[in-house]
Amino acid sequence: MMRDVMTGSAVFMVQVLGQPSLRDVHGALRPLERKAAALLAYLAIEGHTPRGRLTSLLWPETREDAARNNLVHLLRKLASLAGVPLVEGRETLALHPEVRVDVQSLFLAGEAASGVPLPVARASLLATHDFDDCPELEEWLCAERERLEEWWLLILRERATLLEAQEAHEAALGVVLRLLDLDPLSEDAHRRLMRLHTRMGNRHRALRAYERLCALLRREFGAEPLPETVTLAQSLYRPLTLASASSSLISA
């Protein structure tokens, strides 16, 4: 548990990216069991949800009355773990306003101008759990993991663009390297890398980045870079050619 610096109210931190866990009222990190983690992740992403929808996702093969009873017990276990109820509502459930879930912070980080820091590392939604026994929930989870992956790439691209526009080249370079780690075949990311190296006075590094891209594309696809990438590379080679020619004239 933390306290909101603006209001002084308690804030309960829930992690559903990677290993699901909860920071309790004493500040201890508690692991979340599979269906508790799924419930909190679903409410964090989807918002207010009818009880019937949640029971059909979490206990698809169970009679409705028994499934609703299971949900009541699950909510009580969560409240006991946290020290206070984390979920509120009667027939429609939602997270308590003082609950903060890491996946929500990821969406906020997508607003590049918001000042929200990028997460330290990318982690998959409910990474340590699977839900083969809950087919509809598993389908939702797979779709959300894919959507979050795309969102994460978008966040990195937008943050790199913002930092480059602010001429914060070193910070932008760090973001671009993270982007390439996730999507090594992205020519856009390679062009960003080339531009940043050039603006930081490392033209030779920019050219090596281009040569690595060429080798990668030939190995993976038997293809050459896009025309805009080639044009950028040619603009980098040209000053080196002129410098070499000038040196030759001076030597002569």
UniProtKB/TrEMBL annotation:
Is DNA-binding included in the keywords of this UniProt record?
yes
Keyword list, A-Z = DNA-binding
Q: Which GO terms describe its molecular function?
A: DNA binding
The chain positions of domain Bacterial transcriptional activator read 101-237
Task: List the InterPro entries.
Answer: AfsR-DnrI-RedD_regulator (IPR051677), BTAD (IPR005158), TPR-like_helical_dom_sf (IPR011990), WH-like_DNA-bd_sf (IPR036388)
User: Coiled coil where?
Assistant: none
Task: Report whether DNA-binding shows up as a keyword of the record.
Answer: yes
Q: Per its UniProt record, what SMART domains does this chain match?
A: BTAD (SM01043)
Q: Which Pfam families match?
A: BTAD
Q: Which PANTHER family match?
A: TRANSCRIPTIONAL REGULATOR REDD-RELATED (PTHR35807)
Protein known as = DNA-binding SARP family transcriptional activator
This chain's source organism reads Deinococcus yavapaiensis KR-236
